[in-house]
Amino acid sequence: MSEVELDVPETRAAALERYREVRATTDRLAMGLCAEDQVVQSMDDTSPTKWHRAHVTWFFETLILTPHGANYTEFHPDFAYLFNSYYEALGPRHARPHRGLLTRPTVEQVGEYRRHVDRAMEAIIENAPDNQWSEFAPLLELGLNHEQQHQELMLTDIKHVFSCNPLAPAYIEAAIGKSRGDLPPVEWIEYEGGLVEVGHQGGGFAYDNESPRHKSYLEPYRLASRLVTNGEFLEFLADGGYQNPAYWLSDGWAIVGRDGWHSPLYWRRDEGRNDNGGCDLGAWSEFTLSGLRTLDPDAPVSHLSFFEADAYATWEGRRLPTEAEWEIAAVQANVDTSRPPANFQDNQIFHPQSARFSPGGGPIQMFGDVWEWTRSAYTPYPGFQPLDGVVREYNGKFMSGQMVLRGGSCATPANHIRATYRNFFYPPDRWQFSGLRLADGP
Amino acid sequence: MSEVELDVPETRAAALERYREVRATTDRLAMGLCAEDQVVQSMDDTSPTKWHRAHVTWFFETLILTPHGANYTEFHPDFAYLFNSYYEALGPRHARPHRGLLTRPTVEQVGEYRRHVDRAMEAIIENAPDNQWSEFAPLLELGLNHEQQHQELMLTDIKHVFSCNPLAPAYIEAAIGKSRGDLPPVEWIEYEGGLVEVGHQGGGFAYDNESPRHKSYLEPYRLASRLVTNGEFLEFLADGGYQNPAYWLSDGWAIVGRDGWHSPLYWRRDEGRNDNGGCDLGAWSEFTLSGLRTLDPDAPVSHLSFFEADAYATWEGRRLPTEAEWEIAAVQANVDTSRPPANFQDNQIFHPQSARFSPGGGPIQMFGDVWEWTRSAYTPYPGFQPLDGVVREYNGKFMSGQMVLRGGSCATPANHIRATYRNFFYPPDRWQFSGLRLADGP
Amino acid sequence: MSEVELDVPETRAAALERYREVRATTDRLAMGLCAEDQVVQSMDDTSPTKWHRAHVTWFFETLILTPHGANYTEFHPDFAYLFNSYYEALGPRHARPHRGLLTRPTVEQVGEYRRHVDRAMEAIIENAPDNQWSEFAPLLELGLNHEQQHQELMLTDIKHVFSCNPLAPAYIEAAIGKSRGDLPPVEWIEYEGGLVEVGHQGGGFAYDNESPRHKSYLEPYRLASRLVTNGEFLEFLADGGYQNPAYWLSDGWAIVGRDGWHSPLYWRRDEGRNDNGGCDLGAWSEFTLSGLRTLDPDAPVSHLSFFEADAYATWEGRRLPTEAEWEIAAVQANVDTSRPPANFQDNQIFHPQSARFSPGGGPIQMFGDVWEWTRSAYTPYPGFQPLDGVVREYNGKFMSGQMVLRGGSCATPANHIRATYRNFFYPPDRWQFSGLRLADGP
Amino acid sequence: MSEVELDVPETRAAALERYREVRATTDRLAMGLCAEDQVVQSMDDTSPTKWHRAHVTWFFETLILTPHGANYTEFHPDFAYLFNSYYEALGPRHARPHRGLLTRPTVEQVGEYRRHVDRAMEAIIENAPDNQWSEFAPLLELGLNHEQQHQELMLTDIKHVFSCNPLAPAYIEAAIGKSRGDLPPVEWIEYEGGLVEVGHQGGGFAYDNESPRHKSYLEPYRLASRLVTNGEFLEFLADGGYQNPAYWLSDGWAIVGRDGWHSPLYWRRDEGRNDNGGCDLGAWSEFTLSGLRTLDPDAPVSHLSFFEADAYATWEGRRLPTEAEWEIAAVQANVDTSRPPANFQDNQIFHPQSARFSPGGGPIQMFGDVWEWTRSAYTPYPGFQPLDGVVREYNGKFMSGQMVLRGGSCATPANHIRATYRNFFYPPDRWQFSGLRLADGP
User: Fold this and answer.
1) What would the pLDDT profile of B30-42 be if each residue is shown by its tens digit?
2) Could you tell me which chains touch chain C, where touching means 3 or more CB pairs under 8 A?
3) Residue C339: pLDDT over 80
4) Helix (H, G, I), strand (E, B) or coil at B310
5) Among B308, B302, B158, which residue's Cα sits nearest to residue B230?
6) B214 has which bridge partners?
7) Where are the beta strands (DSSP E) in C243-299?
8) What's the average model confidence in pLDDT over B371-376?
């Protein structure tokens, strides 16, 4: 491992409990899906549920059981080929856009694969000699965080699959909270900036891309106290936002034209309704993991590309925050991400909820609900070193062409996120729960 | 209906029996497939099993039950949109390349749909007033033939799906016959030609594209007594057939280069084996509906595009027959297609079998095994009139850019084929059981 | 040469005169074009003027001078690579879609190349020993016909280049005839059909694809006495022809949607004008080789794809003729193609002209004006043998996926066309002068 | 204008002289090109010479003459449509990928257009009232810098056009310097970093994207004293650099596979030569603006994409500098960019030259030769404000997906570059003179 070492869980018992919890969550998330749902790939960016479930299992098998499991027998000789995602160092693999062609192994067989690996993993966690344990324990923690990332993707990917179906199926009959009409107004919270430190400080797990902690100079800036809402974004539409190139980055405007974008990904005009030019709130629905719902004006706008988030901010006369600005604010907010009112995967709503008034006066919705696009390109921190070995490819090789998002979403497990966490997607990507918070200044 | 009327089954009881038999066959063909297998679409040309099963059902619902069923209640209001294939007159429909995105309705629900429609169909066949019966009886026969066509596509499509899977699943553990080393040599059967009549003569069901029966002038010609075999096609490979543009039509040669064709669709080089330049028979396997099998040199070559069939014939110094030449020979052969030795779907082998010596001396394998590419473009017969009404779109609108194939295959029901039957595919298509018989002269 | 031998001109003096005439015509056609015009390629199907002029020259150099010219010195060693069109047997060549990247050789240098080859050709025609002369004389005639084909392409290709330019340049300030309002009405000329003979009979030059002459059986049929006009085609538009799939072949309808076809290729709606739904004649202009002109309702409609021609005929309740039907009518009409009123390249109008009343009562406009789409796919005649040697690739390898057109156009040299001439293009192609004549029956 | 005002030249006489000098340089650069060369567009990213020459002229016409020229008469009403590059605010325009279809206006007409605008510009510079002069003088300076940018593009674009021609034409018979075998070794120059200031300080012209000047914190770092050479890059090839994904960013590796990259853009293997695996220096040539030349091992490697530059640095165990690191070093180097030994457009060599030993000990080749890829994404500086008005679109809307390059190249005018200058291209772009300098630390 490189000097940026992965953190080791404190005890084997704690590790075992955590292993079981994460793995069970994955299975629970898939429980509402029938076999047909789990096999389909709706676009190159998404993967079938079944594939996700097998891939995270392959990760443990390949990085822990095969090298460290004394008597471990591989479940199936071809699974390494089928379920490697992008690790060039681990040999050839099934092409990503063809994941949806694999009707076999079946969902049932993938379940068996998971149980086979779980049995071996539980045994090795409990019984491995100490020296071996300390070798693989960091990879175990990495594997669990990896699986949590794929839990989020399972949700966003099946949402995309269902959105392609004219029947608009629901993943879950969730109690998507209704807005109560008490949306707090935006306040502008001031930050003095100066020479700050950002990045992971040590203590607890973090990915390599969050290190090293380093100095950065910030001008004074302001952040909006809450996320931008559907109602606010609708004003952008009403003002011809999608028709006016003045608000758009050049690459974004080209996509607006090429792909005919006219609203966030899952918004749908209710054709029959009487409305005034498409900007009447009542005239819009939104496809959610609970099926089609009337658009909630107070809920955070979601499924925006970076280009749409940036265009909205430009139209507003503001801008997106940088990732350092966001991180400093998030650290100061000192939020316990593991408790309400943050809206994480744990809530099982799987949809962003409208902001509630915060007594403390700090920014709200910094964590959960939607990932917040920043204006920062995803590039290495000064002195960045990728992990050693195969997992070197985990983060570093994606450091071009993508933008950083911060804060987690309603599909992120609460114990997976932190203030220094750097998520990244391409500027046109819209199928994640991605929204924005406005920034201002210097 | 147009003057080219569809034929009416003789009695309602016969119609009912036939309806039940065809519908049961479809279900039986799907029985070996799990839910995952039935949902995937491997390329634009193929459709999911589940879709086929629902589409043929929609055909009866839309053309018979909705207009003629007194109290018929549609199974689901969106199914007309989901399961219309290409009937423009029946309104908008789910885009063909996106059929594989429909995880719902599930396989189970499609099964219920089938039973719902079957109950109503059986009732209407038995109980409709006579005047109504005579109105829809021709459409019933059309619908059953339509379903038989889709039975064949179910087989060729799932073969393609499975061929994309590195696990090479088997659809059925069929007893694919082994060649016994007694392949009859090719003999050249002579036909005098002259002013002949081709096309459907009346009596029994036929599609509109087989009419009207008309005169055609043929020069004297010769046909090979049997199909071209894998072993013979391998000689074309060994002679550099796929590397030499001299044998290829220009459009075909462009595809050879663009798509890297180097053998029939489902042939696979056995990498490890010791062979001499790839032309050793032992060095090739073939993906079949029973999984990967060693290539049988005596079995008919299959899964050829028109371009490959034509190139082979050119290399041989021969040519493909015209459809009229083929039809005259098929009529003279006077084969009872419903009995052995013809290798149809009914055999449940689902793979072409090597030719057996024919005592009579006529051409063998005219029916079954593989569809035979002709050199005839699929154009209307002189005086062709499409059917009236919605089914006008059944055949006529495809009369450009495609080539005629004749004779049926190992995936065709025996009672579906006849000497005048015109199948048609685009010159590059290879996923059907398509091979060739050589012609010669004038 | 194969048994289908090319014809030999009668005397060397006649050959020399013809050579000079054809070559001079090519240069004259390019005279109005500046260097910039001659270098650009506007789509894959078209070629730069400069390339045409060099390619036809390369044909003589490669097929006659190099093998037969005793002391001939190649003009430039790389030109064989640059100016081979599609002859696989003559080695690798510059990719067709990249012809427009060749700024060098310049127009001036291509002119030198032409003069270099002309000097050598004239010498060899005059001075070659008799046995050599009889060897290459057929190739000379082929080369001259080849150059005439490229003369037509020079015109259609530069028309396409100019049509892409918002300045709408004119190639020539031609006196495009105005219609005089005396368009003869369509009459239906009857043909009895029966067992006829079609194809080249010998005597005079013909391409290999016109042979062998062979019997064909035709039902009785009728042909329209003249071409379909712009005014008539406008009625098809007015009736929603481009919006109604009922008239279209399936492949054509897909292109209508994909490419947004809404009128013949070069028609343009005059935005500013007051019109009733786009179907007012005054509201349309047409881009011609003399720039934008008000659409002439009586002139033949041109620049149709096969799909549009076929859709129009279907809408009319008629059909396109087969090539045999057309040929029989053309032979019976016994037209001297080399004299008025036929509108050929020789007229230097380069635009189809409205039909004039014909005293004889036979069909008019069979030759010249526009190529007439037939419903016949371009396939080999029974017994077809391609030419031997390199020129084997001239016609035969294109015999798939294309449709036959007959009769020549306003860009065809009068002495290049004949009743048996088979031109061929893909069904979607529109940049040729291609229109239609209706047929009816049986 | 925004608060980031463009700088005004000191006197009208100076402005006039500078105007004449820049305009004359553009014409001189086009002088060696024939009309054919100037019309072709070889890929979407490049533009025809003729288009560049007209577009920079349109810029003056549109931004100065039309609004400020009292009696100015537009040269041609359609030129605004034809020669607008990307200014959405100025209305619709000819699609970028179709610039190469415009054979008209001719080169000669574009020359007239230039002279027409020059006459009016010279008059307005000399005679405009003072208040008007101060209004448009900043736009004049912007227009001249704009034209200088297009001078560089004229060179890189015609290089690309010529590189597509098998004849490998030369733009100029330049005295590309031969290396003298005295390449200075790389030394590592140390920088202490800390809280620095970067960005334009005021005084002299700069683009809006160079402002505002702002603080940035840098860890200590080291820069290589010179650029990476062809010889050094060849070692990367010899070590399998293009075959090993370990060195590549994920997006870069995908392009290597998709486009078959195996060397810098203009390198060509000399097929015939005896070499050891392609890594023998003698076995490579490089296409230059003086035609094909033997690869000079000591000259800076050029025409690299960001991906290749980054992969090389990774292979070396180093990294690319950030733009701030580069700028601090460039400022400290205190180079007079307008004098030798820097290799700019002014040298008329148009090819990077090998480094010469620098007496001072600082970094060499910071300016000229090749643009240096940095690891910095092209994003706005803190507090960035685009220019007001139409020129708002000049830089800001491109701030996504691109990487910053610094230092100018052998195609950049000496008086166009400065330490704060930010050039930007997409990571896969290779047709610019783009290379790299290694960085190290922290």
Assistant:
1) 999 999 999 999 9
2) B, D
3) no
4) helix
5) B302
6) B198
7) 267-269, 284-288, 291-294
8) 98
* In chain C, domain spans: 12-163, 170-442
Chains C and D touch (3+ CB pairs under 8 A): yes
Contact B34 A106 (CB under 8 A): yes
Residues of D in contact with C100 (CB under 8 A): 40, 100
Per-residue pLDDT tens over the stretch C273-313: 444 445 566 689 999 999 999 999 999 999 999 999 999 99
To the nearest whole angstrom, how far is the Cα of B97 from the nearest Cα of chain A?
11
Helix residue spans in B164-248 (DSSP H): 230-238
Hey, which residues 264-293 in chain A have their CB within 8 Å of chain B?
none
Residue B72 and residue B64 in contact, taking contact as beta carbons nearer than 8 Å: no
CB A430 within 8 A of CB A305: yes
Q: Which of A33, A34, A36 to mutate to test the interface with B (most CBs of B within 10 A)?
A: A36
Q: Closest by alpha carbon to A366, among A402, A348, A341?
A: A341
Tokens encoding D397: 């809307």
Specify the pairing of strand D371-377 against strand D403-406: antiparallel
Query: For the whole model, what pTM was predicted?
Result: 0.95
Rounded Cα distance between D307 and D251, Å, is 8
Chains that touch A (3 or more CB pairs under 8 A): B, D
A95-109, A166-180, B122-136: least confidently modelled range: A166-180
- Residue D323 CA to residue A377 CA, distance in Å, equals 14
Chain A residues with beta carbon closer than 8 angstroms to that of B103: 34, 36-37, 39-40, 161-162, 165, 169
Give me the pLDDT at residue B274, please. Answer: 47
Q: Which residues of D33-46 are buried (b: 16+ CB within 10 A; e: fewer)?
A: bbbbbbbbbbeebb
Quote the tokens at residue D418: 């400065």
The residue written with tokens 């830089």 in the block is: D395
A98-116: average pLDDT = 97
Report ipTM (2 d.p.): 0.95
Average pLDDT over residues B224-233: 97
Q: Which of B278-282, C4-8, C416-420 has the lowest mean pLDDT?
A: C4-8
Angle between helix axes C49-60 and C107-127 (nearest 10 degrees) is 20
Q: Which residue among B42, B81, B103 sits closest to A37, beta carbon to beta carbon?
A: B103
Q: Which CATH superfamily is domain D170-442 in?
A: paralog of FGE (formylglycine-generating enzyme) (3.90.1580.10)
The CATH T-level fold of domain A12-163 is: Four Helix Bundle (Hemerythrin (Met), subunit A) (1.20.120)
Confirm or reject contact between D306 and chain A (CB < 8 A).
yes
The answer to whether the beta carbons of residues D26 and D59 sit under 8 Å apart is no
Asked if A326 reaches chain D (Cβ–Cβ under 8 Å), the answer is no
Which chains reach chain D with 3 or more Cβ–Cβ distances below 8 angstroms? A, C
Q: Is C102 close to D34, i.e. CB distance below 8 A? A: no
Interface test with D, best of A2, A253, A256, A400 (most D CBs within 10 A): A400
- CB spacing of D379 vs A375 below 8 angstroms: yes
Structure confidence by residue, pLDDT tens digits, D367-386? 999 999 999 999 999 999 99
- CA triplet C3, C7, C8: central angle to 5 degrees? 125
Q: What is the pLDDT of residue C270?
A: 82
Inter-chain residue contact B217 with C216, CB threshold 8 Å: yes
- End-to-end CA distance of chain D: give it in Å, rounded: 40
Looking at the complex, report in whole angstroms how far the Cα of residue A83 sits from the nearest Cα belonging to chain B: 12
Minimum-distance CB partner of B375 among C88, C219, C379: C379
User: For chains B and C, what is the number of CB pairs under 8 angstroms?
Assistant: 90
> Which residues 6+ apart lie within 8 Å of B229 measured at CB?
B183, B297, B298, B299, B300, B301, B354, B355
Integer angstrom CA distances of residue A214 from A380, A385, D218, D222 = 12, 13, 9, 18
